[in-house]
Amino acid sequence: MNKVEIKARLEEAYSDFLKFIDGLSADEFDYAPEGKWNAGQQAIHLIKSTKPLVKALGLPKFLLKQQFGKTNRDGRNYEQVVERYKEKLATTTMEAPAKFKPEATSHKDFKKLCEAQRAVIDKIQTKLNKWTEEEMDEYVLPHPLMGKVTVREMMYFSIYHAGHHQNLVKLYLKGV
């Protein structure tokens, strides 16, 4: 997937998520099984997990290299990133780090959450304009579950992540 395709898929994935939760009733939006996140909290988690990418993608590349190094392996494609994430998720008891955990929210916050997520995705897309295809495969960023991943792989993960959380909401609502 090239940069143009990544940008389109990011837009599509987060738009689909927001359209899905927009279609929920207030009760559905606010519902979550015990110990799980409701639709609004899923949205907050997605905002909190994409927001750091805006900063990272805007940093001078020499700082990224200094902080995290450069890749020392071949890049993974979208399917490989998704598979790796699923494997890590299945084999760990780790919860989302505190900085990515959502606070309580309700249906009344929907519009604010939509605006925040759209703004973050727009900023990521703008920052990606300054990255070459080669740089996306060269520089790495830390992922809390998968370790160091290339910038391209982080974008793949971010695309998948929106659908993953949409599917969690669907799964939880089956219990209603």
UniProtKB/TrEMBL annotation:
Any matching Pfam family: DinB_2
InterPro entries associated with the record: DinB-like (IPR024775), DinB/YfiT-like (IPR034660)
Gene3D superfamilies (UniProt xref): dinb family like domain (1.20.120.450)
Domain DinB-like: 9-167
Residue ranges of the TM segments: none
Domain of life per record: Bacteria
Name this protein carries in UniProt: DinB superfamily protein
Organism: Roseivirga pacifica
